[in-house]
Amino acid sequence: MAKNDIESGEMVIDTEHAETRVYELAFHIDPELPQEEAKKTYQALREGIAGTGSVVAEGEIQKVPLAYTISRKEHAGRRDFDSAFFGWVAYEADGAGHQKVLEMIQAESRVFRFLDLRTTVDAAKHAAEIHEFYAKLPEKPREGDDEASDAQLDAALKEAGV
Prior knowledge:
Elements: E1 2-6, E2 9-13, E3 21-29, H1 35-52, E4 54-74, E5 77-93, H2 95-107, E6 111-119, H3 121-136, H4 143-160
Antiparallel strand pairs: 1-2, 3-5, 3-6, 4-5
Helix pairs in contact: 1-2
Protein backbone atom coordinates (compact mmCIF):
# COMPACT_ATOMS: atom_id res chain seq x y z
CA MET A 1 0.00 0.00 0.00
CA ALA A 2 1.21 3.50 -0.78
CA LYS A 3 0.43 6.46 1.44
CA ASN A 4 0.00 10.00 0.15
CA ASP A 5 -0.44 13.23 2.05
CA ILE A 6 -3.36 15.29 0.84
CA GLU A 7 -4.44 18.76 2.01
CA SER A 8 -7.15 17.39 4.27
CA GLY A 9 -5.13 14.55 5.79
CA GLU A 10 -3.63 11.20 5.04
CA MET A 11 -5.07 8.80 2.48
CA VAL A 12 -4.21 5.15 1.88
CA ILE A 13 -4.19 4.11 -1.78
CA ASP A 14 -3.76 0.56 -3.00
CA THR A 15 -1.62 0.94 -6.14
CA GLU A 16 -0.41 -2.64 -6.28
CA HIS A 17 -3.51 -4.33 -7.68
CA ALA A 18 -3.33 -5.36 -11.33
CA GLU A 19 -7.05 -5.93 -11.90
CA THR A 20 -9.16 -2.98 -13.00
CA ARG A 21 -11.57 -1.36 -10.59
CA VAL A 22 -14.24 1.29 -11.08
CA TYR A 23 -13.82 4.70 -9.42
CA GLU A 24 -15.88 7.87 -9.43
CA LEU A 25 -14.04 11.18 -9.33
CA ALA A 26 -16.15 14.22 -8.40
CA PHE A 27 -14.61 17.69 -8.35
CA HIS A 28 -15.25 21.41 -7.90
CA ILE A 29 -13.66 23.83 -10.38
CA ASP A 30 -13.02 27.51 -9.58
CA PRO A 31 -16.30 29.40 -10.19
CA GLU A 32 -14.49 32.61 -11.18
CA LEU A 33 -13.23 30.99 -14.38
CA PRO A 34 -15.17 31.74 -17.56
CA GLN A 35 -17.49 28.89 -18.63
CA GLU A 36 -15.18 28.04 -21.56
CA GLU A 37 -12.12 27.74 -19.29
CA ALA A 38 -14.03 25.54 -16.86
CA LYS A 39 -15.08 23.30 -19.76
CA LYS A 40 -11.46 23.12 -20.99
CA THR A 41 -10.37 22.10 -17.49
CA TYR A 42 -13.06 19.41 -17.40
CA GLN A 43 -12.06 18.13 -20.86
CA ALA A 44 -8.38 18.01 -19.88
CA LEU A 45 -9.24 16.01 -16.76
CA ARG A 46 -11.49 13.68 -18.75
CA GLU A 47 -8.79 13.11 -21.39
CA GLY A 48 -6.21 12.41 -18.69
CA ILE A 49 -8.53 9.87 -17.11
CA ALA A 50 -9.27 8.26 -20.49
CA GLY A 51 -5.51 8.00 -21.08
CA THR A 52 -5.00 5.93 -17.93
CA GLY A 53 -8.14 3.82 -18.07
CA SER A 54 -11.59 3.84 -19.62
CA VAL A 55 -14.43 6.27 -18.93
CA VAL A 56 -17.57 4.44 -17.73
CA ALA A 57 -19.90 7.42 -17.20
CA GLU A 58 -19.64 11.17 -16.72
CA GLY A 59 -21.51 14.28 -15.73
CA GLU A 60 -20.71 17.47 -17.64
CA ILE A 61 -19.83 20.45 -15.49
CA GLN A 62 -22.50 22.82 -14.31
CA LYS A 63 -22.31 25.78 -11.97
CA VAL A 64 -23.89 25.04 -8.61
CA PRO A 65 -24.20 26.85 -5.29
CA LEU A 66 -22.33 25.10 -2.50
CA ALA A 67 -24.11 23.98 0.66
CA TYR A 68 -21.38 25.64 2.73
CA THR A 69 -18.41 27.93 2.13
CA ILE A 70 -15.16 26.17 1.28
CA SER A 71 -11.94 28.03 2.15
CA ARG A 72 -8.55 27.38 0.59
CA LYS A 73 -5.14 28.85 1.33
CA GLU A 74 -3.40 30.27 -1.73
CA HIS A 75 -0.23 32.27 -2.30
CA ALA A 76 -2.12 35.58 -2.12
CA GLY A 77 -4.06 34.57 1.00
CA ARG A 78 -7.28 32.74 1.75
CA ARG A 79 -10.05 32.30 -0.83
CA ASP A 80 -13.64 31.44 -0.01
CA PHE A 81 -15.89 29.59 -2.45
CA ASP A 82 -19.70 29.73 -2.26
CA SER A 83 -20.29 28.19 -5.70
CA ALA A 84 -18.38 25.98 -8.13
CA PHE A 85 -18.44 24.26 -11.47
CA PHE A 86 -19.23 20.67 -10.45
CA GLY A 87 -18.39 17.69 -12.63
CA TRP A 88 -17.71 14.00 -12.22
CA VAL A 89 -16.23 11.10 -14.18
CA ALA A 90 -16.58 7.39 -13.43
CA TYR A 91 -13.63 5.44 -14.78
CA GLU A 92 -12.09 1.99 -14.76
CA ALA A 93 -8.37 1.67 -14.02
CA ASP A 94 -5.78 -0.55 -12.38
CA GLY A 95 -3.81 0.54 -9.32
CA ALA A 96 -1.14 2.44 -11.24
CA GLY A 97 -3.77 4.18 -13.40
CA HIS A 98 -5.74 5.18 -10.33
CA GLN A 99 -2.59 6.66 -8.80
CA LYS A 100 -1.95 8.70 -11.99
CA VAL A 101 -5.50 10.08 -11.91
CA LEU A 102 -5.08 11.18 -8.29
CA GLU A 103 -1.74 12.84 -9.05
CA MET A 104 -3.31 14.63 -12.03
CA ILE A 105 -6.28 16.00 -10.05
CA GLN A 106 -4.04 17.11 -7.16
CA ALA A 107 -1.79 19.00 -9.60
CA GLU A 108 -4.73 20.86 -11.22
CA SER A 109 -4.77 24.29 -9.54
CA ARG A 110 -8.23 25.17 -10.87
CA VAL A 111 -9.78 22.27 -8.92
CA PHE A 112 -10.23 23.28 -5.28
CA ARG A 113 -11.99 20.18 -3.94
CA PHE A 114 -12.32 16.59 -5.16
CA LEU A 115 -13.53 13.22 -3.98
CA ASP A 116 -12.44 9.88 -5.44
CA LEU A 117 -14.48 6.80 -4.51
CA ARG A 118 -14.48 3.16 -5.47
CA THR A 119 -17.83 2.19 -7.02
CA THR A 120 -19.38 -0.27 -9.47
CA VAL A 121 -20.20 0.01 -13.16
CA ASP A 122 -23.94 -0.27 -12.44
CA ALA A 123 -23.86 2.48 -9.81
CA ALA A 124 -21.89 4.77 -12.13
CA LYS A 125 -24.30 4.23 -15.02
CA HIS A 126 -27.27 4.82 -12.72
CA ALA A 127 -25.69 8.09 -11.55
CA ALA A 128 -25.33 9.15 -15.20
CA GLU A 129 -29.01 8.36 -15.85
CA ILE A 130 -30.07 10.42 -12.82
CA HIS A 131 -27.81 13.29 -13.95
CA GLU A 132 -29.41 13.25 -17.42
CA PHE A 133 -32.90 13.12 -15.91
CA TYR A 134 -32.30 16.19 -13.74
CA ALA A 135 -30.66 18.03 -16.63
CA LYS A 136 -33.88 17.64 -18.66
CA LEU A 137 -36.14 19.00 -15.90
CA PRO A 138 -37.21 22.62 -16.27
CA GLU A 139 -35.57 25.04 -13.88
CA LYS A 140 -37.48 25.79 -10.70
CA PRO A 141 -38.86 29.31 -10.64
CA ARG A 142 -37.02 31.52 -8.18
CA GLU A 143 -38.92 32.71 -5.12
CA GLY A 144 -38.83 36.33 -6.28
CA ASP A 145 -40.43 35.34 -9.60
CA ASP A 146 -43.59 34.10 -7.83
CA GLU A 147 -43.99 37.37 -5.93
CA ALA A 148 -43.66 39.41 -9.11
CA SER A 149 -46.27 37.31 -10.87
CA ASP A 150 -48.62 37.65 -7.86
CA ALA A 151 -48.25 41.44 -8.00
CA GLN A 152 -48.98 41.40 -11.71
CA LEU A 153 -52.02 39.23 -11.09
CA ASP A 154 -53.32 41.63 -8.40
CA ALA A 155 -52.85 44.60 -10.74
CA ALA A 156 -54.69 42.79 -13.52
CA LEU A 157 -57.59 41.98 -11.17
CA LYS A 158 -57.86 45.64 -10.10
CA GLU A 159 -57.94 46.75 -13.74
CA ALA A 160 -60.69 44.25 -14.46
CA GLY A 161 -62.71 45.65 -11.56
CA VAL A 162 -62.81 42.45 -9.56
